[in-house]
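## Example pair
The file below holds two records. Each record gives the amino-acid sequence first, followed by its structure token line.
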Amino acid sequence: MKVAFHTLGCKVNQYETEAMAGQFRKAGFEVVPEEERADCYVINSCTVTNIADRKTRQFIRRAKATNPDALVCVTGCYSQVEPETVWNMPEADIVTGTGNKNDLVSMVLQAMNSGERIKDVLPYDALCEYRDRGIITSMEGRVRAFIKIEEGCDRFCAYCLIPYARGRVRSRDPKEIVEEARTLISKGFREIVLTGINTALYGTEEGFKEKFGLADSDETGIEIIIHMLDKLPGDFRIRLSSLEPTVVDRDYVKRLMKYRKLTPHLHLSIQSGSDHVLRSMGRRYTAEDYLKIVKVLRDHDEGYGVTTDIIVGFPGETEDDFLDSLEMCTKAEFLKVHAFKYSRRKGTRAYDMDDQVPGPVKNQRSEKLMEKGEEVRKTFLSKEIGRTRTILVEEAEGGYLTGYTENYVRTYVKCPDGADPESLIGQFIKVVMKDLYLDGMTAEPEE
């Protein structure tokens, strides 16, 4: 039997798809590309925006059209918060949510035997335990591996449905995280990326340290994990996928700078440069607080790569508020700005707020923000010229090697004379950064 996966949304979903694929393989399924004809299709859904919801529905229909006799299974955030909407689609044979992806293989086998549709979505109150999906031993990529360390969020920002889709904060056993990292490193992965629904909340739930025998530690949960991983043998690096300024401050971030394997790159979502909008969003910091964190990072490394998310058109956002976001881009000198138009999500506080911003205004602001993001990206990269960085080679094509530096700059390097490009995939190479090119920079191997 063949199974194919389609994953929408975040790195957590990517990780969970890998975990589910491993479970299906153990059950005797062959995992095939999603465009192939399969006996079972699994859509791992996202519900961050209305567009994500629509894409999920499109892929459900596309899967059934590819093979009308196949089982189409829908899991993830969209089916968690809108189970009835998905269940009412005749193409969906199995509907489950975020809390019982672990049970999907047994549901598929049950449906295949009975010929009946299955809906099994845990209620929000049941999303209270970190359910073990086993140790991931492989990833689709060849050099970088994601490890999920945390589930859930308790921030309830005014625009966001994710806390409702993912439930309460619960943290994974530190020993299991370390074991998974050790396994992946032994298989040749050179970069370990720690991810979660709100990674900064790892270990913040009551009783975490006592539960895992860490009561004597004065470190935060994230510090505990990075400390443990930093001591592992092997030539690899650690990347935090993101931290939330709603959780961390400059002192917290400063303590992370001591770990030698932690990369100088962080995705730090600001969402708006306006204090007025941040308050309306329910974000627990000011623009000045955010810039203080950025200063700590840049004091550690002038080229510390900071990427971010910014929402335009949040209810009540004025033109001056939007200009504050543009100014924040200039002040923070982001490596990458992910621009999002506010998406009205039923069930969130922002859904019923007054002063909803018209679509054409959101479109205009989004375009301006993307232009500003490109401007500050070029400014940041220009300052990298002449600096020595280390890339992890991920691809080799046409005599060139491509990979990311420790501060997350995509880099293109000519393969050294006489070297086999394929043999360099998964290797660290010291380079001198040269010029801006496409989505990153060119570089030359350090002599």
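Second record, same layout:
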Amino acid sequence: MALLDTLETRLLAILDGSYTAGGRSIPASTFVLGTIFYPKANPRYPAGTSSAAINRRFDLHWRELAYEGPNPSAENELQSPAVRAADADLTVQYAIALPNALAPTDTELKLGALNTASKRALNDAALIEWALAWTANWSGVAIECVRRGPSTAVRRDELCLVLTMPLRILLAQDTTVTPGAWS
């Protein structure tokens, strides 16, 4: 198993609500792992399942793996634990409420459409941080998970707003064991 696999498994379980052993959990089905990108070819004003296809879908972008090195005071520093910092960007997509399909296509968003999506995104950011920052949720897998910067909610296009949470997960690695290769 590759080094980041266990981190990703725990992170996804916390987000999808299936990991409750740590004591702080997110309700199941609140966030859904994004397995597809929302195609631009869809109708401009989707409704029903088309609109739901982008709401609260999340994805991970693993950004960096920092290495703090083995303990220099150890008898054999190459056989001591090393601390690594895995940086990831967690992104969550939100549907922006648009005027009905009869509105002219050049009409700007109705008042409050962006406000509603951005408030929901930042409220969700607080919920996600509450669960991910709880040290007990990382027991046996990592040391902790913290934000490495502010959470931002940015309008991507007419249909979608994206919440980005920059995360840092600290983990201890036994340097005598291979971290594995992705296959």
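Notes on the second record: The mean pLDDT is 80. The domain at 3-174 is CATH 3.30.2000 (STM4215-like).
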